[in-house]
Structure formats: structure tokens, C-alpha cells
Amino acid sequence: MAYIDSDIGELVGLVLRKIDYDDYTKDTIDFTTDSGKLFRMYHDQDCCETVRVEEIIGDLDDLIGNPILTAEKRTSDASGDPDVWESGAWTFYELATIKGSVTIRWLGISNGYYSESVEFVEVNGDKTSRFRSH
Predict the structure, then answer these.
(1) Which has the least CB within 10 A, 7, 37, 61, 123?
(2) 133 domain-assigned
(3) Does position 117 have pLDDT exceeding 60, yes or no?
(4) 84-94: per-residue pLDDT in tens?
(5) Which range marks the domain in which residue 110 is found?
(6) 9: Cβ–Cβ under 8 A, 6 or more apart, which residues?
(7) Of 61, 122, 118, 116, which is closest to residue 85 (Cα–Cα)?
(8) Which residues does 50 contact at the CB level (< 8 Å), separation at least 6?
């Protein structure tokens, strides 16, 4: 399985068939399109860092079955958050269809030497998701 770096904006105009979310580890969300493409939003955890979904605002089911109208990423410093030790970053992904919108809020914290970012990639190879579907 190979990952190709992508931009969340690539989802605009595509129709999602399903969304799979690992609600146990909260570090991976898979988006499968009607055409069979699989996109993954994730973070590979390393030593002195934690990056996970803190909150999903809206209903992921609203993103299924209609073209994605907006797909945007924003980041901001999370140093003032009480859960952040030395360094932190918020990453917000906002997606919308005609049915509704969803904001996925990730929090990355570390000692300042490790990644706090979220990856968005297209998956080539095995396109089977192992998470709970929406």
C-alpha cells in the first residue's frame, strides 16, 4: 500500500460513498469515493507526541451521497490549551455538501521536537478500510 500526498481540496466535486472512522484510537478517518478512490486523514504516532481527533461537529453521514461543495483545512497554535504541555497545534478540516457541513477538529501535542500535524493522502493498493463505516 502506498500513500500519495494529497490536499483536502481534492475532495471538492467528488461524491463520498462511505466514511470510516477509528473512534478507538481517534487517529484515522478514511473517505471512499463513488469512483473507488480512498483518501486517508491520519497521524502516525511517534514517541513524545499525541495527535488525535478531539471533536467532530456535525454528522459525517451528511457528507455521503452528494458532491462535496467545500473541503478546507485550517491550522492554529494550541499553546494556550490546558491539555498542551510544551507545544501544540489545532488542525480543522471543514467539509460540506448540500445536506450539511462537518468540522473535524484535531489536536496535536508534543514536546516541540515531534510532529503535531495531520496527513491527508490518497491510498494506492489495498483500499479496504478497517474502521467503522458511516
Answers:
(1) 7
(2) no
(3) yes
(4) 667 778 899 99
(5) 2-126
(6) 71, 72
(7) 116
(8) 107, 108, 109, 110
Q: Fill in the amino acid letter for 78.
A: A
> Could you tell me which residues come within 8 angstroms of residue 113 by beta carbon, excluding any fewer than 6 positions away?
48
C-alpha cell, 94? 471543514
Look up the pTM and report it: 0.85
Give the integer Cα–Cα distance in Å for 108 and 121.
18
Provide the strand spans (E) within the chain.
2-5, 16-21, 28-33, 38-42, 49-57, 70-77, 87-97, 100-110, 119-124, 132-133
- Whether the predicted pLDDT of 60 surpasses 90: yes
Instruction: Give the model's pLDDT for residue 113.
Output: 61
The C-alpha atoms of residue 45 and residue 25 are separated, in whole angstroms, by 10
Q: Is the residue at 89 inside a domain?
A: yes
Q: Tell me the CA end-to-end span of the chain in Å, nearest whole number.
A: 23
Asked whether residue 132 is domain-assigned, the answer is no
Using CA atoms of 75, 76, 78, 81 in order, give the dihedral in degrees to the nearest 10. Answer: -100
For residue 131, being part of any structural domain is answered with no
Q: In what order do the strands lie in the sheet with 49-57?
A: 49-57, 100-110, 87-97, 70-77
